[in-house]
Amino acid sequence: MYKEELRDKKELILTEDGTKTLFSCEFNEAYHSTKDGALVESLEKHIKPAFLLQKDKKDLVILDICFGLGYNTLTTLYYIKKHNLSINLHIISPEIDRGLISSLKDFEYPKEFNQFRNIINDLSKNLYYKDKNLTVEILIGDARAIIPKIDKKVDIVYQDAFSPKQNPLLWTKEYFADIKALSKSNTIITTYSVASSVRMGLYENGYNIFLVDGKGVRSSTIASPKILDLKYIDMELKKARNPKARSFRDSDFN
Ligand SMILES: C[S@@+](CC[C@H](N)C(=O)[O-])C[C@H]1O[C@@H](n2cnc3c(N)ncnc32)[C@H](O)[C@@H]1O
Description:
alpha/beta; Rossmann fold; 9-stranded mixed sheet; 3-stranded antiparallel sheet; 8 helices; 12 strands; 26% strand; binds S-adenosylmethionine
């Protein structure tokens, strides 16, 4: 499945919102939706819904799967700054590609991230950044091995791996069970995937499934152990209508 020898082969692409992303030859996929735009996708599918749903919390732990170009982490910081939120934030982000992180100090980010240049440089070099209200840790390695070792409960999970087709082991029922072990009763998972098999994997682990329509982007999914005031997806009805629908399992790919 993985073509590790292609890991360093990446192409720079311009997305619809004018921001840049990469195309991975290893996973044969872009790091962001080129149609939605890298910054807009991050803001509309992950950051805005997660922060609106967790707006009462002053301390947040975020699991950012996986760091990639860091758009989700950096857009989170941008959102907090823009809305003048006073939040103590701890971001934990697994990432397998150390070479990519080293290269980020030279990546052409949107101007919105200029104010975070020192954070990008620190992360690129040391995989770590800390100041009074913010800690960011990039954990290098396979997310499947890293996640069970995380000893913190998380408030938000940005589930932003390459697609189930290209990186299925980061979307299985067993993978979501490891995420569930880190969840609180009101954790919010955001993901761009609307695939039934992904939703089934979340549902089978006790998450409720909701549909989100962000501004100017395609629909996405929110999952939470809690019932939210969002468009509820009735997974029992989905199962009745399509008895063959099932989650991905690790054993399908090993
Ligand atoms: C779609 S990109 C993430 C984009 C990122 N969220 C952003 O906003 O820039 C997927 C990332 O997953 C990483 N990755 C792939 N398989 C992984 C694994 N098993 N464990 C950890 N990271 C992995 C890739 O190197 C890539 O950086």
